[in-house]
Specification:
Number of helices: 5
Subcellular location: Secreted, Extracellular space, Extracellular matrix
Structural class: mainly alpha
Family: Belongs to the UCMA family.
Shape: elongated
Pfam family, one: UCMA
Number of strands: 2
Function: May be involved in the negative control of osteogenic differentiation of osteochondrogenic precursor cells in peripheral zones of fetal cartilage and at the cartilage-bone interface.
Largest sheet: 2 strands, antiparallel
Strand order of the largest sheet: 1-2
Organism: Erpetoichthys calabaricus (Rope fish)
Length: 149
């Protein structure tokens, strides 16, 4: 375990030396430094400094990098094409959401309609059974034919 730490520290020192040596093209791509005081240093893509020919596109002069970040700063206005693309995406998402909720509403309305129809049918059947059971042969029923003074 100790030799891994030594190798990592040597690699870190080599990376720093190469970065200082190439001060006109400085770029650390994905170096994640976790808890330094515990000597647990994790590197991602530190080979970019050891073999710069592999990923030449990552390195750029500082002037170009600062121009890039100035051009795309938080407060810089977006181009009309970017705004149109974002609006198209937003409208498409709204349309999908609208269609989804409309479908859900239609399914619920169909379910409610079926439930109401079933409830109505059950009530009608029960009413018919009750009338058949209590039928006294008179129409209208006997209760309505009573002539009380």
């Amino acid at each position: 375990m100790n030799w891994k730490r030594v190798i990592l520290l040597c690699a870190f020192a080599l990376v720093l030396i190469l970065a200082i040596k190439k001060n006109r093209k400085v770029s650390i791509t994905n170096v994640d430094v976790y808890v330094i005081f515990k000597l647990k240093i994790k590197f991602k893509l530190w080979m970019n400094f050891l073999v710069p020919e592999i990923k030449k596109g990552i390195f750029m002069p500082e002037a170009e990098a600062s121009k890039f970040f100035k051009r795309r700063a938080k407060r810089s206005p977006k181009s009309r094409d970017e705004m149109n693309a974002e609006n198209r995406q937003r409208l498409a998402a709204d349309e999908r959401r609208r269609e989804y909720y409309e479908e859900q509403r239609n399914e619920y309305e169909n379910y409610v309609e079926e439930e109401r129809d079933e409830q109505y049918e059950r009530t009608r059947e029960k009413t018919e059974q009750w009338r058949e059971w209590h039928y006294d042969g008179l129409y209208p029923p006997y209760e309505y034919n009573r002539h009380h003074v």
